[in-house]
Amino acid sequence: MLTRRRFMIGTVGVTAAGVAAAQLRTATALASPAQGSPDFGLRTFIEGRLVDQVEVVEWERRRLSVAAARLRRDHGGVVIGELDSLLAHAEISVDDLSTARVALAQVRLMIGEDGLRELLAADLLASEAAARAGIAASGGHWQYAITEIASSRGTAQGFLEWFDSARVNNERAVWTDACPDHYIIATLPDGRQEVVEVTGGAMLASQFFVDYADTAGVMVPSDPAFPLTVCGVASLSDGSVIGGVRHQFRDEPGGGFRGQFKVAFPAALPGLYIAEHRWHLACEFGNWISAYLR
Fold this sequence. Notes:
Strand order of the largest sheet: 2-1-3-9-8-7-6-5-4
Strand content: 15-25%
CATH topology of the largest domain: Alpha-D-Glucose-1,6-Bisphosphate, Chain A, domain 4
């Protein structure tokens, strides 16, 4: 049933995302490879391979287009954007991310968190069913998306304190703006984080809750080479465990620090899902580290 509230949410979403799309087109026209990608001396490793930071920026640019289409309920655009994001890695140039990030942030603010939940309600319902099926098919086994980022500046303890402060103080813009696939990341009164995002190579947004106090239940193995750790268990709203995170850090001998970011997914998920989430980790943590270093 089309209620007035749903109509208003839809109208705001279409209008705001239309503005975002226009700004994204303007950003493309004005683009240069240096825009939106300041050099903070970061080196990103995916499957042990050092990747060019331009590749990470290009991945984020593709996901910005998909997010804009999703927020204006352009389902055809979402599908085309997903295919573009997954298959056209080498063919898409770097855009002006600064303008695009601001545009997307404005859209999320205009729609609001309640509006985003309603806008994505069908996604969240379907993805929850898929998550339950994936857990059932995995028989208690897990696979891991792992990405590492080394920074020539800062310290492991300094970043971890900054990261934890943003979580405890519920600095929502810090969390949400780090990746186009983030729709809501909010710290709840009980300390858990509500996360609404598109993970990995998923076609749908999902909702889950990360409990950073539940360290005993984390299924992600620890690496003794990284002494500082933040970890937690990810669950559905009813407490059903669907994964976990373990992010570890160390200072580097020549200065700076290195982070190892690991997320557990049900073992039954396709390999492409895990491969794409490595880029998701590269994007979000690269942006968080850059924000810490500013």
